[in-house]
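Lab notebook, page 48
Experiment: co-folding of the full assembly
Goal: obtain a model of how the components sit together before planning crosslinking
Operator: M.T.
Materials (sequences as entered):
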Amino acid sequence: MRDRVEDLALAGPGILLLALAFVLPIAEMLGLSILGTHRELTLEHFIRFLSDPYYLGIVWRTIYLSLLITAICAAIGFPLAYVMARIRPALRLWLIVLIILPLMTSVVVRTFGWMVLLGRGGLIPFTLWKLGFVGRNFTLMHTEAAIVIGMVQVLLPFTTLSILGVVMKIDRRLEEASRTMGAGFFATLRIVILPLAMPGILAGSLLAFTLSVSSFVTPSLLGGVRLPVVAASIYDAATKTLEWNFAAAQSVILLVGVLLALTPYIKLSGRRHG
Amino acid sequence: MATLELNQIVKSFGSVDVLHGISLSIESGQFVSLLGPSGCGKTTLLRIIAGLEAVTRGTLRIAGRDVTDVAPENRDIAMMFQSYALLPHMSVRENVRFPLRMRNRGTRKEQDERVQATLETVQLGHLADRMPRQLSGGQQQRVALARAIVSDPKILLLDEPLSNLDARLREDMQVELIELHRRLGLTTVFVTHDQEEALSLSDTVVLMNAGRIEQVGGPQEIYASPRTGFTSEFIGSANLIPVRVEETAAGPRATLPWGEVIAVAPGSKPSHKASLVLRQEDMKLLPSQTIIPNGFRATVETRVFLGARIRYVLRLGDMRIKCLAPGTDIFGPGDAVVVSVPDSRAQIIEA
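Observation: model returned without errors.
Model output:
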């Protein structure tokens, strides 16, 4: 009994802070989303969003771009994390610094960097053109490819570091045992390391997916107005058309979407941990 | 089952040499122990045989084939790790099937039968569907053993496989290892720092010290006739006493540092700088008035009761030696005793 009181007393300040910083705003948002123009309860904002092909298109773009970005981050992050886990500690430290370094500059600045690199005459299209891979000078700006490239660069550190934490804890002798049992390097990577790294890959992917679904700056700047994502649509509703209730409804839909994405992940990783 | 030949194996980590030219030839079907204190290079040598470490110089042959630069997965060996290294995400059955699956041995059905039969061999047939974490340490160890022998490897490598078990389980496993080896006849290399384990299990003991082979021989040979001070101290933790050996009409005699003279093993060569090897269990303590054919006087300094036996620390002049006596003779600290040593058990080695 005493323990429980003590626990509560210890957790109290934290719970209070969480309530003020998270529960209250979310409750406010939920409230706004179901209020009509004359302060009556209504689902009109949800119906408007979910019945308009324009908005459904935005949702679809957001989801598949996020899935693509997450998959690319995991596909690059896993081998990168494996290499980082297996090299000398001094070298690993440098790689970690190298990976974290971009996080220390603002996303806006980095995105502007990508705009320079991806635009017409920018380094990437220009090089591709000069090397003869494409027929003419072109721009990668305002394409979905640009969004994916920019977002992968933003999110890769999160995925890599989540996977690194798990791969570092995998006993090296498991790998050695696998090798002595006749599995080559790549077979060992696939059959031993990959499944054992799965909790990290799942956690990293989850992080990448949720950040990607709700990201605003990078997709808006690299994708432009013709390729809006959900976050941009919320921004427009809240700041341009001043439909706060509609913006709140979209936010609720985004939140529910992220929560839905979370459930299978939690189930999966829960099973892995037994 | 195959022969194993090591030829002048040198291993350096950076500027540190851990193996200084190890040459060793192991016959097919032998059970060989690599024995030595920690840091002597025995585990590194085992890892080199497994292919987990590259050699700096030297060559390695398994069944006559040069495998010096062959990857571990292509050496057709099996290794059992000290930590067992069971794959935690696979069931016992999948763990044991792993070597067969990776080497494409037989159909799925044949593999399953083989796995079941091997698990029965180590008395784990009923636990095939458990996950490794659901097993006790002893059971995990049996799984690791089953996994090592299932593919009938050319060489079986065991890296201190018994060191994580408690004393009782360990004795049981030793017996099982001997029986398994007799039944399967696998060429086995066993790393241990426990001299009793090495002596009781192996056909040949390879005693290593500081990256070199100190002595190679059968367990009896290496126990009875140590060639170096290190061997005699490490095997049976014998006492080494510096002596001068002279030949007399009655046979060789050794002068102890405090002046007493005792008869030593026939055939010992005269020398001014030799060491007398006295095993703890070869000495017999008797009350100080007893007349003995050969031996010396000493004073009991400490007594440590070990159950079946008692370890005495004896003081002789300014030296101390250790002695194991049956639990029945009780002397206390300060007692004067005579130490009886049969001359045949008083070995002389060159210092």
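Interpretation: Chain B touches chain A through 26 residues (CB under 8 Å).
Next step: discuss with group before ordering constructs.
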